[in-house]
Amino acid sequence: MEKKNIDWGNIGFGYIKTDERYVSTYKDGKWDEGGLTQDSMITMSECACVLQYAQTIFEGLKAYTTEDGRIVTFRPDLNAERLNQSAKRMEMPELPTEKFLESIREVVSANAAYVPPYGTGATLYLRPFMFGINPVIGVKPATEFQYRVFATPVGPYFKGGIKPLTIRVTDFDRAAPNGTGHIKAGLNYAMSLHAIVDAHNQGYDENMYLDARTRTKVEETGGANFIFVTKDGKIVTPKSDSILPSITRRSLMYVAEKYLGLETETREVYLDELKDMAECGLCGTAAVISPVGKIVNHDDEICFPSGMDEMGPVTKKLYDTLTGIQMGRIEAPEGWIFEIK
Ligand SMILES: *Cc1c(COP(=O)(O)O)cnc(C)c1O
What we know:
Elements: E1 21-27, E2 30-31, E3 35-37, H1 49-53, E4 56-58, E5 61-65, E6 71-74, H2 76-89, H3 97-110, E7 123-132, E8 145-154, E9 165-169, H4 186-190, H5 193-201, E10 206-208, E11 225-230, E12 235-238, H6 247-258, E13 264-267, E14 277-284, E15 288-297, E16 300-303, H7 313-326, E17 337-339
Parallel strand pairs: 9-10, 9-15, 12-13
Antiparallel strand pairs: 1-2, 1-3, 1-8, 4-7, 5-6, 5-7, 6-17, 7-8, 11-12, 11-14, 14-15, 15-16
Pyridoxal-5'-phosphate binds at residues 60, 184, 220, 223-225, 244, 246-249, 283-285.
């Protein structure tokens, strides 16, 4: 198969239309068979539930080429599971895991020419999503839904080297207690847009959100979970009902324990403790781990000993091990690598 003529190292993170996408419709209480289409446009009623009341959820994962030339995705069964947790909370129909995996397989296979070659650092980003499409004006869930998956190639996350981030503790809240912070719903992102634009205007890369109830505990950023390394080498990640359960973070915690023999803790992490941490990183599909060099809390600055020039040593080990597993250089735990072809 001939690859597309794309400058893989320089495409950045933007939407590039690919050839085929998957679509399935839920109507009269059931999913239709579903399949590929070349039509990237969606026509719907002006009164569609997604447009009026934001009934929409999504997932994000990537397909890439391993060292030995296979095209694979990483733990897509966990994306299927999480999509269904989001669906339940949003009064949307669940999608059978098999159907989810089939949709991923079809979209990646049909767009194999867009899967970047091994070693470029680029990947084919996959965006499964589901939304309520029939007209709804009284506030209630839709009864008809579309599930779709499209693919778009994205460039290497750390172009020109890994630079630690500067983040700020924001006064905005991301998720209410007993709200929707733990599901991957568009609504969590809608309300984060103002906060991130404001952060960027003030010169920060990201927002650190605190727990909305007490504003003393660390939650996450708008789109990534935190991990910390303590001064005695323990890996700590915040525990909260309003954090989105990152698949990358869960995989890193496993790798820390089972591959690197590190002690791990999932517990409440207080803002007050951050000054005692040795390293800090943001975990998500896009970057795996982005190191954080500095956290600014109003007049207070926390500078991690790992500095602003490179990843901390433990973060680096975690990063190298997980990316090694993903790329097929290190043996993966059973079921982590889902082979497309
Ligand atoms: C998607 C997402 C993450 C990262 O999850 P991964 O499964 O690791 O990609 C973290 N936080 C939020 C709020 C997210 O939406």
